Amino acid sequence: MAVKVYERILELFEAEGVNTVFGIPDPNFVHLFVAAEKRGWNVVTPHHELSAGMMAEAYARMNGTPALCICTLGPGIALSAGSMMNALVENSPVIYLGGQRARITEQRVRRGRIQFVQQEALFENSVKWSASIEYADQTDEIIRHALRVSQSGTPGPVYIEYPSHVIQEELDVPPALPPSQYRLVEPGADGDMVIKAAELIKGAQCPVLLVGHAVQCTRAGAKVKELAELMGCPVLQTSGGTAFIEGIEDRTFPYLFAEVADEIVAKSDVVVAIGTEIGEPVHYGRGYLWAEGNTDRKWINIELDAEAIGQNRPIDVPLVGDLRTVVPQLSAALKDSPRQNHPDLARWIEEDRVRLEDLTKQDFSTDSGRVHTGQWVIESTKAMPEDAIHVRDGGCTVIFTWTYLQSKPRDVIWNQNFGCLGTGLPYAVGASVADGGKRPVLFTTSDSAFLYHIGELEVVQRLNLPMVIVVGVDNAWGLEVGVYKRTFGHEKTTEPGVHWSKNVRFDEIAKGLGCEGVYVEKGEDISAAVTAAFESGKPTVIHVPIDPVINHGGNQNLDTPNYDRFRTWYAEGQQ
Q: What's one GO-annotated cellular component (predicted)?
């Protein structure tokens, strides 16, 4: 079968279930874009290559497959570099395909070449693997190895260079192989280790599941639900794994940001960690909350990357393999003796329900008359449709969200590990594209974060994505205002560089980019505005002025909810 190189690349990705390309077309890739469209692919073209990479990352998280991001040579691939680093730290399998000048030009010893920089060496520390398609007949082996590396061990990005002189070459190749014939697909754990883990769970007094980001990214929620029910246990979410699993929402609690979770950690005697690095935000499983109560608890770690086992804390039973296979293995070992629900589970569920309800009853009045950030979260998220995808971005507004969230979304996309602002709008687009635009998307963000890629609102409008964006506007880098106050004290610094114009109107910008725009001044009106926006079926931006003093934690920077706990993530050398 004779095909062009660019057509073969698409065939190889199709074998992995990928049917979307993110990027900005240029002479290196116009043939690939045309071929993709003819094959029925989604061709998503944003306004910035950095956005393209972030859209691709969200697609990978939602689709459970790698994602393809195309970048033109020189400035295009350079602008995407930040998203490569982001994908590496967020463990996202994004394949970056970068154009390059023909090798005869690249290898000249000359200055003054147009749109040129030697690229591969610049990115090798930002990806898991990099390579170049030097000859057409390398296409299969390089693309397959990229797909293999991106999904093996800890997932992550790879970079493939695509010199222009091979674009139009032809290959005579057989049909693309299925993934199972060129890489290890969903490997299972050692059987003896599974039995050992099951015996630990059977003999426990208070086993718990610690569930991380990878459970959502692998679309393995139903499998984890079965295990949680067989164990009769509560589920603790890491800060990166805040998506709720359908059917066990009530027994799921956020580690660190709910009092119930403190008691669960203290009582736990067996912890089954699934899809998490057991990193700083959970105090490496040995510091802070874990240092209280039953400190001789046993740990079972389900982990695809064998090198990650025991890095951050000792592990009693390592279950090395893909959680999509290992979790059912463990469930099968427990089916003959399912546990009753823990005797405190019903009480924990009720106490956390009361906690969330009580949050809505506090006094949200502010001296400025602007909206309290806590009320902004409550009113935005209580109006979220049950099946909505929730995307988050921002600094202080995200910290408030951890405490005040009133919904239990089954898909949550935000930038937890890298802590990168500005990811939210590209993430929202990529997640909605991966979903086929079927489910509503609620994107809650701060003004500073939203401004990074606000031009991508045009993409939201062009694709008519079912998205409502609620922007908390304090006209400042709120978290950094708090840093100034905590460092120097209130009114002891001019806080240079963290305040900006109060004349920006995001609702008006939205209208100018073809979306709907709504301005809401009162907190109690936000919920109705969100509901009306979703019912309209039109992409909508809701501008909400929030109180800047409340948002950054008061004039002494002491009042941000759970801020003292958030700061424990950064206990330099302490954990």
A: acetolactate synthase complex
Residues 110-123 pLDDT 10s: 666 656 666 677 78
Task: Tabulate helix, strand, coil % of the chain (nearest 5).
Answer: 40, 15, 40
Q: Which amino acid is at 504?
A: V
Task: Give 168-213 pLDDT, tens digit per residue.
Answer: 789 999 999 999 999 999 999 999 999 999 999 999 999 999 999 9
d(CA 539, CA 517): 9
Place of tokens 């520390």: 125
Could you report the per-residue pLDDT of 337-377, keeping only the tens digit for each?
999 999 999 999 999 999 999 999 999 999 999 999 999 99
Which are the contacts of 423, defined by CB distance < 8 A and separation ≥ 6?
54, 86, 393, 414, 415
d(Cα 375, Cα 281) in Å, to the nearest integer?
25
The DSSP element (H or E) to which 21 belongs, if any, is strand 20-23
* Nearby residues of 108 by Cβ (< 8 Å), 6 or more positions away: none
Residue in 461, 74, 92, 171 with CA at minimum distance from that of residue 83? 92
Instruction: Give CA–CA dist 102/270, Å, rounded.
Output: 57
Best CA proximity match to 189, nearest among 180, 181, 202, 198: 198
With b for 16 or more beta-carbon neighbours within 10 A and e for fewer, the 283-306 pattern comes to bbbeebbbeebeeebbbbbbbbee
Ranges of H-type helices in 124-220: 139-151, 191-202, 213-217
User: Sign of the CA dihedral 348, 353, 356, 362?
Assistant: negative
- Residue 374 tokens read as 């806590």
Q: What is the DSSP letter of 312?
A: S
Residue 229's Cβ-side half-sphere holds a number of Cα atoms within 13 Å equal to: 15
The encoded tokens of residue 33 equal 């874009």
Q: How many CB atoms lie within 10 A of CB 270?
A: 24
Query: 């023909």: which residue's tokens?
Result: 102
Q: What is the rounded distance in angstroms from the CA atom of residue 377 to the CA atom of residue 362? A: 13
CA 62 from chain centre, in angstroms, equals 9
User: Could you tell me how many residues make up the chain?
Assistant: 575
For residues 21 and 42, is the Cβ–Cβ distance under 8 A?
A: yes
For residues 512-547, b (16+ Cβ closer than 10 Å) or e, as one string? ebebbbbebeebeebbebbeebbeeeebbbbbbbbb
Name the token pair of 306. Answer: 């064998």
Residue with tokens 């033109």, as numbered in its chain: 72
Question: Nearest to residue 73, comparing CAs of 164, 196, 199, 178?
Answer: 164
Can you tell me the distance from the alpha carbon of 397 to that of 556, in angstroms, rounded to the nearest whole number?
Answer: 18
Do the beta carbons of residue 532 and residue 385 sit within 8 Å?
no
